[in-house]
């Protein structure tokens, strides 16, 4: 399955859910495109299946306020690949497990799963911790793999982030893709057209990303994409009793 088929499947899935409930006309009107254009995007034969391109994918994500790269990142994780290989191969990262809002929410691990696969959080606690973001199911979690953000985030911490924040519009800690297949958890700070990438741990170097050049004009190794903003960090310690 190539990236274009990935996008078509994600789009079909989106249209099948409320408020569209499978009505293509309603979806087309909501995003401001013709029904015939939508049919082309969903067609496996139009332009050899390449009718749903990158520009349209980014446009729909912006109109519908979807997470950045929503249509490109893998919905089902192939656990035979590590995080870097998953992104490099073009496989999507995100996986959303069904939630039972009367009982609990299943928070999926987006990246860096570590020893976990998912976390169940009681509804009351979910709304207390994350507010409306819990209701729209945009919260995901990652396992911190290093101490570059210590003491704010330490290796082994559970990092909860909101995928509704697909851009670094304000200073804060974000999870993002940069440097080819690499996923980072770092503090981002805007400085004009530059974005400062800051490690809270002084033992690690900071660097800058040039935002004046769009991703479409960059080499793959320089593409920058925000996956979400960090909203909570749970510190845990896995110990073997003696």
What does this structure look like?
Strand 7 and strand 8 form a beta hairpin. Helices cover 24% and strands 22% of the residues. It is built from 7 helices and 9 strands; from the N terminus they run H-H-H-H-H-E-E-H-H-E-E-E-E-E-E-E. A 7-stranded antiparallel sheet has the order 3-4-9-5-6-7-8, with no helix packed on it. About 12% of the residues have low confidence. By secondary structure, it is α+β, with helices and mostly antiparallel strands. It folds into 2 domains: 67 residues; 131 residues, Umud Fragment, subunit A (Ribbon).
**Mind telling me the C-alpha Rg?**
19 Å
Query: How many strand segments?
Result: 9
The fraction of residues assigned to DSSP E strands is: 15-25%
Helical fraction:
10-25%
**Uncertain spans, ≥5 residues at pLDDT below 50?**
75-103
- Give me the oligomer status: single chain
Assign the CATH architecture of the largest domain: Ribbon
Termini gap: 49 Å
Please identify the structural class as seen in this structure.
Answer: alpha+beta
The whole-number mean of residue pLDDT values reads: 78
CATH top level of the largest domain? Answer: Mainly Beta
Q: What is the helix tally?
A: 7
Tell me the CATH topology of the largest domain. Answer: Umud Fragment, subunit A
Domains counted in the coordinates: how many? 2
Give, in spatial order, the strands making up the sheet with the most strands.
3-4-9-5-6-7-8
CATH H-level homologous superfamily name of the largest domain: Umud Fragment, subunit A
Q: Could you give the order of the helices and strands?
A: HHHHHEEHHEEEEEEE
Shape: globular
Major beta-sheet overview: 7 strands, antiparallel
